[in-house]
Amino acid sequence: MKSDEHPLIRDYLTTAESELAVLPADRREEALARLAACLRAAVLAADAHGDLEIRRVLDDFGAPEQAVLPELTDELRARDDSRVGWTLILLALAGPLFVTVWPAGLAAAAVSVYQLWSSDRWRPRERVLGTLAPFAGPALAVLVGYAAAAAPSGFGRYTVLTAPLLALCVPVAISGYLYLSLRRRAAADGRTTR
Question: What is the DSSP string of the chain?
Fold first, then answer.
């Protein structure tokens, strides 16, 4: 009898397969094949044939949930990297959209701020800064507009050109800062960020 035909090993692999259900089918099959090969090698190395011996090998191997954890961690990290990119893009676009088409800007701001706060990749200071990003540019543009209205006539015409530029550049600059901060932290941890 092949080692992976044993009922205990079949149960172990079935549990592992249910844990891997979030993975795409090809990755799930690949991960299960690797796990089955590792189990087969462990059973052969221990020369296990009976239920008690195989149970001991499985206990040494760990729970199925723990055995598939590296695969799940890689998948979730890849999904989170994509989510981080979209968060930064929405943060950068929210300010200009808020000024031009305010409902779209408000929606982009709400989605990006939600993603920012629901991800574990960001530090609290970065979350607060990202929350302010969509509104900082338009708020500065309004302040510059009021300053232009109160200023002498020659000064006002240049500040009117500055206001839309602030609404565009401030959220983009904050998004860029957040991206660089994340890259520096990832480089220090030994990971790469796209």
Answer: --GGGSHHHHHHHHHHHHHGGGS-HHHHHHHHHHHHHHHHHHHHHHT--SHHHHHHHHHHH--HHHHTHHHHHHHHHHHHHHHHHHHHHHHHHHHHHHHHSHHHHHHHHHHHHHHHHH-TTS-HHHHHHHHHHHHHHHHHHHHHHHHHHHS-HHHHHHHHHHHHHHHHHHHHHHHHHHHHHHHHHHHHHT----
Domain of residue 57, residue span: 3-67
User: CA-to-CA distance for 110 and 90, rounded, in angstroms?
Assistant: 9
Task: Give pLDDT tens digits along the chain (194 positions).
Answer: 344 577 888 888 888 888 777 777 888 888 888 888 888 888 888 777 777 888 888 888 777 777 776 776 666 666 666 778 888 888 888 888 877 888 998 899 999 999 889 887 888 999 999 999 888 888 887 887 777 777 766 665 666 677 777 778 888 899 999 999 888 887 787 655 44
Domain boundary (67, 101, 123) is at 67
Number of separate domains in the chain: 2
Whether residue 194 is contained in a domain is answered as no
Entry pTM: 0.56
